[in-house]
């Protein structure tokens, strides 16, 4: 993954900082931040973190670690943006377009937030000992950077989240059951979520196909047209015809240029537009659904909740009331 996800943290940057113990849980309230964290430990050695917090001011949340042996974890923001600043001064962006595979032994990792930012975050972690058992005793060589002795390890790998990883994150944040099988399902999802992140890290990049200049220009023109036409019906065959390409070639262009299929790109653009309109607080859900290309509010609500972990009505209500 390119280094554009890694930044150098300006030493002069100073924000109000609030500490949160990752070994704790439930509701937390600190000056300038309102939110909730849930930590679930499973018999398999997996730990699941689910955080939802809203910044009431520009601030930083400092997370206190809980592992005392070598470990590995994944982190992903379903919604919202933050800058994760490590104890060694490096920083990485976190948003819905990047997932992190990480190991940071020292406490003190900070999430820098802008006032008004609402973050929904999923994390899954396990010790290397427990993970090694799942691999039959030998971890993949591609995880070598994460295997150092416990103490000062500080390693981050940014990966592009697959559709499967996004879906797993949504399932972890809004589980489909509250019954007796809830924890069993969450443990399964958490394991696959971590495995998917590891797989994205370990997978060798596919050779980039050669595209003609006119194909790349056709894609650039099509992207702009799609962004202006989200309220219209948008099918891959129709878009391919508009670009003068075969369906499969258009999808290949999307995947190797944006790491998304054409359909995924359209869905994400529609959700981003809907989120922007709802957070404005001046557009009813039905109107937002129409402008986002949905003829039925029920279909729009399901897609929005799957993407952001909450209903569009809740986003609108929070924008209108400030809560």
Description:
This protein is an alpha+beta fold and about 325 residues long. The chain folds into 2 domains: about 5-200, Jelly Rolls; about 215-320, Arc Repressor Mutant, subunit A. Helices cover about 40% and strands about 25% of the residues. It contains 10 helices and 13 strands. It has helices at about 130-135, 165-175, 180-200, 215-230, 235-245, 245-260, 260-280, 285-290, 295-310, 310-320; strands at about 5-10, 15-20, 25-30, 35-40, 45-55, 60-65, 70-80, 80-85, 90-95, 100-105, 110-115, 120-125, 155-160. Strands 3-4-5-12-7-10-13 form a 7-stranded antiparallel sheet. A 6-stranded mixed sheet has the order 1-9-8-11-6-2, with no helix packed on it. A hairpin with a 4-residue loop joins strand 8 and strand 9 (about 90-95). The chain is globular, with a radius of gyration of 21 Å.
Blueprint (SSEs and pairs):
Blueprint: E1 6-8, E2 17-21, E3 26-30, E4 33-41, E5 47-55, E6 59-64, E7 71-79, E8 82-85, E9 90-94, E10 99-104, E11 109-113, E12 118-127, H1 128-134, E13 154-159, H2 163-173, H3 182-202, H4 213-228, H5 236-243, H6 247-258, H7 262-280, H8 285-291, H9 297-308, H10 312-321
Parallel strand pairs: 2-6
Antiparallel strand pairs: 1-9, 3-4, 4-5, 5-12, 6-11, 7-10, 7-12, 8-9, 8-11, 10-13
Helix pairs in contact: 2-3, 2-9, 5-6, 7-8, 7-10
Quickly describe the structure.
This protein has 323 residues and is of the alpha+beta class. It contains ten helices and 13 strands.
